[in-house]
Amino acid sequence: MSENLFNRVWDLHTVTTLPTGQDQLFIGLHLIHEVTSPQAFQMIEERGLEVLYPQRTIATVDHIVPTDNQERPFADPLAEHMMQALEQNTKRHGIEFFDLTTEHQGIVHVVGPELGATQPGMTIACGDSHTSTHGAFGAIAFGIGTSQIRDVLATQCLAMARPRVRRIQVNGTLAPGVSAKDIILRIIADLGVKGGIGYAYEYGGGAIDALSMEGRMTVCNMSIEGGARVGYVNPDDTTFEYLRGRRYAPRGEAFDRAVGWWRSLASGPDAEYDDVYELDASSLEPMVTWGINPGQAISVSERMPRVESLPPDAREVAASAYRHMGFDDGSPIAGTKISVAFIGSCTNARISDLREAARIAEGKSVSPGVRAFVVPGSKQVALQAQQEGLPDVFERAGFQWRAAGCSMCLAMNADKLEGREICASSSNRNFIGRQGSPTGRTLLMSPAMVAAAAIAGEVTDVRRLAATTVS
Amino acid sequence: MSTRSPAVNRIVGTGIAVRGNDIDTDRIIPARYMKVVTFDGLGEYAFRDVRYDESGVMTVHPFNEPAYRDAAILIVNKNFGCGSSREHAPQALMRWGIRAIVGESFAEIFAGNCNALGIPAVSADEEAVESLMRGVELDPSARIEVDLVARQVRCGEASYPLDFAETYRQSLLTGNWDSTAVLLANREAIEATASLLPYVRGFSA
Ligand code: SF4
Which tens digit of pLDDT belongs to each residue from B80-105? Predict the structure, then answer.
């Protein structure tokens, strides 16, 4: 038996064990953005502290940026204020800031990997719960709160208790039209939104090995929705090829040495885990959420569960979900009318996501009465999409093509649901109020499924729509 | 700079119950109130969207009840604080007046964020939580004591065992919950650890 990657990387980064029993963990990469960092900078300045490793810190701006008119000052004075705070803080502390004037602004979890800053074997922290995304590279990546951002700024360390490790073995092959998003929605539906508390999730098996880096990021991204603060995939050739030539990736012989080290960290076939969960990917269908947490998800061909058929401690949340959503239990999810379609977020706004959605939208029209948006995850994604002519495909179909940012994933900018609108969304959270309207409703699904819903005006099986395209 | 934060041993105060499993951070503080560069003033937005209906009319919610205005101990059910890493959530509760949270279970990042503020987020079993909730609902002036030393929560005559991560308990009891100074004290060891990491060394031969 041998160590898994998680424990190896944890051990390599352990500075010492603290009197509380927590480990002091060195953080290899700190990513910051405008929403959760200003108070942390204020805290270190009040204490007369400096940023200990500014060269291991990268900033971008994503949550509050407008996706239509990005001229400064922003129309929203509060957003402008936050932007200026980050500009000042990064300047004062010598931190590289990929702002709107650079070609690398975007959602922090899209930008880190595409810069090659995210690498196997690192510990990564960011004041955002979807930091688990970076685990796709075989890094240990945590979402942290603002007091912990203060700690990382001042000490490049966190005080953490070591979690247990659960191997999630995804065997088999995905059917056409079924994607990484469907894998992770199934896992969360099976293990529950609190099933991962106290665990790091290691995803592996044939279906994970076959995913692109972008698909692996989608899976790791939503680990936190299943309660696991960390999710990761062991690094392999797919990982190394993705990183080769990227801005912060090592070059030349250093790259080869890096690959040697990265390979040596990966969990071997005899690695030990605290728990193992297996799933057969070939049985998966496109998934859709019907409720108010990401675990309330079913296959598109299924009916919403009857409240009384659920385990006792899931009934109350299911009942409040039905109250909020206005759905009847036992009804099919397919055919649910939508008013808004959102393709975006750190879960599903990378180039492969946009390509898949464009393939569905090509030559079709958004259903009358549906507001449909595409918000690329970063400027690089937008540039690549432009080279491939994707904005045209979307716009001809009636989607709005926007600039990079978090947008309607959490609606801190002007992109919001109105009233009780129902949104088919490629994002990661369907919490009440998440998309900007306290009474708004969110159905999570893959980007291709969102495109299909936009065109049909209702939740529909993307495989059916794709089939009609072919014939 | 002082190296210790104040020790947290026992929190005594009146309670307030917010019922429901999986109460997420978007519900505790909606994102639109996070367009701020300080945490000051967040208290009034705690649970904002469930305290007011669409037309801005106050709903029936314990955080709206004058009887609970001075409550210091929040009682909740399962998986409280799931979702985002926003420290704005425990900050909003703290600034509203909450100094300890007793629940059946907590999301991990949320529990860590609470601890970093010196707010214990401690677990008790379902029955204990139910009777604490009923206790404060029947009598908002009932005193609750969260005793980290004895690992007990008490309400009137009743006393229930608490489940609380020993690392968090120690950090509160010893006044080390504000970890910056503790971590920085090991500065040489930080540098030593970093210098051994191949990526910090640029994968030099
Ligand atoms: S896209 Fe959504 S989940 Fe991702 S970082 Fe932005 S707000 Fe958070």
Answer: 999 999 999 999 999 999 999 999 99
Query: For residues A95 and A87, what is the distance between their CA atoms, to the nearest angstrom?
Result: 10
Structural domain harbouring B194? 175-205
| Nearest CA-CA partner of B15 in B81, B96, B70 | B70
Residue B63 and residue B127 in one domain: yes
Q: What is the CATH code for A287-466? A: 3.30.499.10
Report the residue from B1, B21, B37 with minimal CB separation from A38.
B37
Residue B75 C-alpha, separation from nearest chain A C-alpha, in angstroms: 17
- Interface A–B counts its CB contacts (< 8 A) at 225
Query: Three-state SS for A382?
Result: helix
d(CA A421, CA A334): 17
Query: How far is ligand 1, taken at its centre, from the CA of residue A409, in Å?
Result: 6
Q: Is any Cβ of chain B less than 8 angstroms from the Cβ of A411?
A: yes
| Residue A348, C-beta contacts closer than 8 angstroms, at least 6 positions apart | A181, A218, A426, A427, A446, A447
Q: What is the pTM of this model?
A: 0.96
CATH 3.30.499.10 describes domain A5-275: yes
β-bridge pairing A340-343 and A164-171: unpaired
A123: how many CB neighbours lie within 10 A of its CB?
Answer: 27
Instruction: Dump pLDDT digits (tens) for A156-184.
Output: 999 999 999 999 999 999 999 999 999 99
